[in-house]
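#struct-pred
JK: can someone run the complex with magnesium ion? inputs below
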Amino acid sequence: LVQAQALTKTYRMGTEVVRALDGVDLTIDKGELIAIVGTSGSGKSTLMNLLGCLDTPSSGSYRLAGLPVDQLDDEQLAEVRNRHIGFVFQSFHLLPRQSALDNVVLPLVYRRTDPLSPAERKRRAREVLEKVGLGDRMLHKPPELSGGQRQRVAIARALVNDPALLFADEPTGNLDSKTSEEILALLVTLNREHGRTVIVVTHEPDVARRCDRTVQLKDGRVVHDTRAERT
Amino acid sequence: LVQAQALTKTYRMGTEVVRALDGVDLTIDKGELIAIVGTSGSGKSTLMNLLGCLDTPSSGSYRLAGLPVDQLDDEQLAEVRNRHIGFVFQSFHLLPRQSALDNVVLPLVYRRTDPLSPAERKRRAREVLEKVGLGDRMLHKPPELSGGQRQRVAIARALVNDPALLFADEPTGNLDSKTSEEILALLVTLNREHGRTVIVVTHEPDVARRCDRTVQLKDGRVVHDTRAERT
Ligand SMILES: Nc1ncnc2c1ncn2[C@@H]1O[C@H](COP(=O)(O)OP(=O)(O)OP(=O)(O)O)[C@@H](O)[C@H]1O
Ligand SMILES: Nc1ncnc2c1ncn2[C@@H]1O[C@H](COP(=O)(O)OP(=O)(O)OP(=O)(O)O)[C@@H](O)[C@H]1O
Ligand SMILES: [Mg+2]
Ligand SMILES: [Mg+2]
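RT: done, structure tokens with the ligand placed:
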């Protein structure tokens, strides 16, 4: 499903060069449940943004479901992102002046293939907000929610279009262990029962333990991949 | 040092009333190292904002170092916050267009008692940024930093004025275990060697375990306080 080869991402800061990603090769099959781990600054979010088609590499190639992503035009990319990819951002990126419900409805509004009525959109958004335990907070706006509640709105928004490929960048960073466990169970169900490919960046060993495979980054490179052990 | 009695914080959302804090009594002595725990939405950040003089309660009283906080004027409050209180926000609140260094220098710029020269401010800001492992990222702006790096800039900024009272709202939520450990060691040192009062909201049992006392919130109230056990 995902084939990344020799991916790099460099930033120029004056005379300094920051190699956020320094040559990453990664192959992910359909239906995998993968944890991406590594210390702060090791390149995890940068990698996720490339794989989720939210950013372009400085060099290297990336194919998604066989399609070379760098050859898609903006419209095609937007459609891929909307229908096939769900993304939970490390910093949430919610619209501060819209309610939780409206934030979660948004990806459904942007849908082009097989569009839904406003009533059906609201119904689906409510359903996924209840799944993450926010049934009684749907009308609150982000500034009227706790940190962990905002994180869960971001998760709900990523799930509402029922994407084949879910990227979650530290989805439990702001959650207590009980709520973390609920979110984790949700991700595992998506993978086991619905066959979704789920890629989770996490700092928590318990979360990584529940995944089938762990890929470890360090200084912008893959330094360990548990899948490689079995071959 | 901190004496909170019957603190409440309610929000009106149309016909609904949200009791973010529902009657909290809490006494904290100088030099304590306390963990505040509880599920997502239980009122931890709300409590921290009240204790850190960033917000006012709906009812109840709060004395800080013997002074009734609600009787201080805006100027006095601002001075207390600047010189005596350090606050690490759950959502960081960094200035996005300023470098990490300038973000950390800011509390020193606002200092009225015993002001510092611009050169000395920069020196102190650099020193604390190095303490949190960001020596090579000082000129990056928040959008040019990873999530965990932004969290550490927020921590550095809270420490730079060497406050007597430090509030840290989930300071390791975006950090891997190694970096978390470094930050935790820093907080313990502040408490043990410098006598600072440190109050940490945390979801991680390892962090709470290192504190001398744990206060647990649930639905806006204190439901458990390990200090009460010893009396
Ligand atoms: N401005 C507001 N208006 C309405 N409700 C609010 C507002 N701010 C907070 N709340 C509600 O108050 C409750 C407590 O919020 P608080 O941020 O203190 O929780 P928390 O314990 O810090 O949670 P987390 O662990 O998720 O950060 C939450 O249920 C939240 O929805
Ligand atoms: N726009 C940018 N300009 C310059 N450097 C950047 C930029 N974005 C990221 N970096 C740097 O690239 C490195 C990797 O960042 P990235 O956000 O991928 O780390 P991460 O593994 O997600 O870390 P964390 O666990 O703290 O979230 C970091 O050292 C960061 O400072
Ligand atoms: Mg990150
Ligand atoms: Mg909070």
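RT: quick notes.
The two ends of chain A are 19 Å apart (CA to CA).
DSSP finds eight helices and ten strands in chain A.
JK: thanks, will look after standup
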